[in-house]
Amino acid sequence: MNRRQFLTTVCAATSAFGARALAGGDAAALARNAAAVKTKHWAWMRGTFASLDDWRRTLARMRAGGIDAVLISGSADFYRTHVPAARDEGVELHAWTFAMMRGEQVKPHPDWYAVSRSGVSTADKAPYVDYYKFMCPSRDEVRQYLAGLVRELAQIDGLASIHLDYIRYPDVILPVALWPKYHLVQDREYPEFDFCYCGVCRDRFRQRWAIDPLRLDDPPSHQAWLQYRYDTITEVVGVLAHEVHAHGTLLTAAVFPTPTIARTLVRQEWTKWTVDAVLPMVYHAFYKQDVPWIERATREGVEALGGRIPLYTGLYVPDLSPPDLARAARYALAAGANGICVFEGNTLTPDHFAALTPILKGRT
CB within 8 A of 114, min separation 6: which ones? Predict the structure, then answer.
């Protein structure tokens, strides 16, 4: 496959997909969640706040602009302090957490980290950037560690959901617009970006298929090996969903823009996950697409889910002028999204709100 054909296959992402079967999970809880679907608009937020009053002012501004929910990273103590203020302002607060990409266990547990096809662990040398220290999703120790992290958050009264980000493998192929930044041409899957080939992954695969994935003639094209990676991330999601749902809290996830792109670039098969909502990052410029692509990409996800859970289209504000942000929101909603999520909400200007708010509030 040449470069042009490859990009066409990965980035077009316009085909309709049927609803996929659910892989396990609590059917009653998922039915309850599906019944609660409504239009809602979100913002991924970054940064810190000088005081609770500053936090309240930020939330009031977001709420007035049509934002119903904010996702922000913080400690358990941060959420305990800031949930009541969010509730008072009429805004949902969601705990934005990193899943597989976590560097805090490198020193005590370097064996927990993913290993590339070239034999290098992210604990020793991360791909692309230093913080890309991804754990191996096959390891029971990693799963239980992550379960403990979400368990603590899920017990915080009033927290609307635990929101999983980086619930995937490292990018075997980066979005095409990022290639120049890293001086790369990723026209195929190169060994140094292909994960995970640690002993646990290889043993688990070998037990089922009687072959070591390192001995495959062409690992990138081996469907069973690809599916193993999809299923392993899906299993981790199931473990975390069980923990979160046991405490009556919802689980949401940030995912790559379409089912096709997610499977191809980061081994996500998110149409099968036992989460309560997905927020695909439909960042059109990352894929060298125009704004109307947002409608096509959103529609693929909506049709693949078949109404099982809500989908909220993620939009990348730094690449959208105020008029284009308004167009992007209209495209997402026209494709069947239950709402939008802006990244990063802190960068919304008064002009952005002026263009966007009438759409979010249903006035245009």
Answer: 100, 121, 122, 134, 135, 136, 137, 169, 170, 195, 196, 198
Residues of the domain holding 137: 19-355
Q: Under a CB-based contact definition with an 8 Å cutoff, are residues 361 and 327 in contact?
A: no
Q: In what order do the strands lie in the sheet with 339-343?
A: 277-280, 250-255, 161-165, 92-98, 69-72, 42-45, 339-343, 312-316
Cα 229 to its chain centre, rounded Å, is 16
90 in a structural domain? yes
In a domain, 11, yes or no: no
What is the tally of structural domains in the chain?
1
Write the Ramachandran bin of 306: left for phi over 0, alpha for psi from -120 to 50, otherwise beta: left
Helix (H, G, I), strand (E, B) or coil at 346: helix
Domain containing residue 153: CATH number: 3.20.20.80
Say what the pLDDT of residue 32 is: 44
For residue 277 the two structure tokens come to 């909502």
Q: Looking at the domain assignment, is residue 143 inside a domain?
A: yes
Q: What torsion do the CA atoms of 287, 325, 98, 337 make, to the nearest 10 degrees?
A: -90
At residue 294, φ and ψ (nearest 5 deg) are: -60, -40
Q: Amino acid identity of 300?
A: E
Q: What is the pLDDT of residues 178-216, one digit of tens each?
A: 999 999 999 999 999 999 999 999 999 999 999 999 999
Helix axes 350-360, 322-334, angle to 10 degrees: 20
What sign does the CA torsion over 67, 68, 72, 74 have?
positive
Radius of gyration of the chain from its Cα atoms, rounded to whole angstroms: 20
Contact 149, 175 (CB under 8 A): no
pLDDT in tens, 57-106: 999 999 999 999 999 999 999 999 999 999 999 999 999 999 999 999 99
Q: Would 74 be classed as within a structural domain?
A: yes
**Helix, coil or strand: residue 206:** helix
Six token digits for residue 364? 């245009």
What is the pLDDT, as a whole number, of residue 50? Answer: 87
